[in-house]
Amino acid sequence: MTPDLFFQYLFAGVTYGAIYAIVAIGFNIIYNTTGIINFAQGEFVMLGGMIAISLHQVMPLPLAITLAVALTMVIGAAIEIIFIRWLQSPSVLRLIIITIGVSILLREAALHIWGESIRSLPYFYGNEISSISLGSVHLSPQVLWVIAACGIMVAGLSLFFKYTPTGREMRACSANRTAAILCGISTRNMVTLSFMLSAGIGAVAGCVMSPITYTQYDSGTGLAIKGFTVAILGGLGNSMAAVAAGILLGIIEAFSVSVVPLAFQDAIAITILLAILFVKPHGLFGSSVAARLKDF
Amino acid sequence: MRLHKGKKIGALLLACLLGAGLATAQAGVIKVGAIFAVTGGASFLGGPEARTAEMVVEKVNAAGGINGDTIELIVKDSAGSSEKAISFAKQLIEEEQVLAIIGPSTSGESMKIKQIAEQGKTVLLSCGAAEVIVDPVGPYVFKTPQKDSFAARKIFQDMKRRGISRIAVVAGNTGFGKAGKGQLLKIAPQFGIEVVAAETYDKKSTDLSALVAKLKADSGIEAVVNWSIVPAQAIIAKNIRQAGWQVPLYQSHGFGNIKYVEAAGAAAEGIIFPAGRLLVADSLPDSDPQKELLLEYRDAYQAKFKEAASTFGGHGYDAITILLRAIELAGNDRDKVRDAIEQLKGFPGTGGVFTFSAEDHNGLDIDSFVMLTVKDGTFVLYNGQ
Questions:
Q1: Contact B206/A214, CB-based, under 8 Å?
Q2: What is the pLDDT of residue B304?
Q3: Which of B200, B206, B218 is the best residue to mutate to test the A interface, defined by the most A CB atoms within 10 Å of its own CB?
Q4: Which ipTM was obtained for this model?
Q5: Number of structural domains, chain B?
Q6: Residue B232 belongs to what domain range?
C-alpha cells in the first residue's frame, strides 16, 4: 500500500469515526444519568439535520443550525417529560422499550413532515467538489468541520462535567443515585437535562454531517447501530473512550475496503461488536469491577 | 314471525332492485386496476406513476370516454411490498373483475404477480425495469420501461467510441443494483471492455470515500459506472470529485430525476447516463415522433402537480395510454385487448416508440434510450466530447 493510499484511508476512517463517536457520546450521557440506552439517539441526529435544512430556507446557515439545535433540545426534553418523567421507579427494560417506541414515533413523524426525499445542508465552506490537498491526500473541507465539532464537543463536555455545579450533579446521579437524592439533587431534573444535552449533541452532529451524508427521515437508524457499537466498544458511559473507539472502528472500516469487498464493511462493525461482547463485555476501556455494580 | 318473514322478502326484493340499479349504472363503465407504490421506499416511482395514470384517465373521461364508455381507475397502494401487491392483484382480478392491471412499480412486485395475472387471464402492464418480467414472455404480461440491458449497451457503445477499455463497476445492494451489475458484467466482454473492479455497497451507505480511494489507486481505471438509486448515486459523485479524480462517471437510467442532480450539486456536472427522451424534450428535433407527446405530457403534469415530470411517471403514462388504445381498438374484452396490445406497431410513448409482437412484450429498441449529461444543473443531450 502506498503512503498516499494509507493516508486517504486514514482520513476516510477518521471522518466516519468522528461521526460514530458523536452519536456514541449521546448514548453515554443518557446512560450515565439513567442507566438506560436511548435508542432514539439516532433520531435526534436526523431531527437536527432536518430542522436545520428547513430553517435554512428562511435564514442564514449559522442561525438555522443554532435554532435547530435548540429546537431538538426542546424536543429531547419534551420526550423525557412526556414519556419517562412521570413513571414510578420503572424497570430498565421498560425504559428501553419506551425509547424504541419514541424512535419509531419520531421517524414516522419525520416521514409525514418531510417526506421520503433526501435533503442536505449546503457545505459550510466551498461546495460539493472543493477539496483541500494535504500532500497528495484530498479531503472535503466539511471533513475538518466534522472533526472539529467532535473535538470541541468532547472538550466542552469534559469541562462541563468536571467544573460546573450542574455537571457535577449529573455525575453524582450516575455515581450513586440514592446518595445524590440525599444530597438534595433533583435527579429527575438531571435526567431531563441529560436528554436535552444528548439531543443537542445529536443535532450538532446531524448538522455538520448533513452535507457529507445527506439527511433522510430514516437516516437515524443506521447511525444509532454504529453509535451503539462504538459506545459498547469503548465501555458504556465513558465519553473519551467513545471517541477513541469511534475512530478505531472508523479506521478499521476504511482499511477493510482494501482487503475485503465493500459489502462486508457493515458486517465488520457487527463482528467487532459481537467479539467485544464475548471477550470484554465491559468494553475496551471499561472496568469490569465498575461494570458489575451496574444493572445493565 | 310472519312479519319477520315479510321483512326478509322485502329486503330481498330491495336487494334485487338495488342490484339491478347498479348493473344498469355500470353499463358503459370499464374497470381498470392499478397497483403502484404510492408510499414507502419506492414512492419516487409509484407516486408519479399513480398521479399520471389518474390524470390521463380523468382527461379521457372528460372528453367522453372511449367509444362512449367511461374508464374507472381503481388505484391500490402497495407501498412497494410484494405481499400487498399479491393480495391487491387477487382482489382486483377476482372481486373487482377489472379488465386489466397497470403496475406494479417495482420489478420485485411484478415478478410476484406475474403468475397471478397469467392464471387470471388478465392483462398486466408492469412499470418495473427488470428484463425478466417479459423474458420469458408470458401471454398476458407486458412492461413499459426500457430494458436494463439496453441501458448497459448504450453506456458501452459510448465507451467504445471514446476508446475506454478498462472500467470499474459499483452498485448498490438493491434488486435494481444487482440486476444492473449482472448485466454490465455479462455484456462488457461483447464490447471488448474489461471490468477491473466490481464492488457492491450498502444502499444506506453515507460515505464512499474509502472505496473511491481504492479505485483511484488503480491508475488503469478509465471510467466508473455506478448503478444505484439515491442517495448513493449522489454520494459517489461527490466523493470522486472531492478526491480530485477527473474520471468519466456513468450512471444508470435511475438517475433520470432532476432532484438527484440537485442533491449532488456541482459534483453532478458531467455525469453521463442513458435515459428516455422525456428529460430533454425541448431539445429534440421537431421531426421526432415523440416530441409533441412528451411536451404535452410534461407540461400537463407539471401544471397539475407542481413538480418536475420524471421518466418514472412516463412509464405510468405509457402503461395507461397503451391500454386505452387497445381498449379503443378491441372493446371491453380481456383476450381481445391482449391481442390488440400485441399487435400495436409504431405507437409513440414517453419511453420510446412501442412495437409489440408475440415475442417482444416490451416493444422498445435500444434507440429508445439517448445519452444525457448534466450541464449547469440541467439535463442536456450528450453529444460526445
A1: yes
A2: 94
A3: B206
A4: 0.77
A5: 2
A6: 149-275
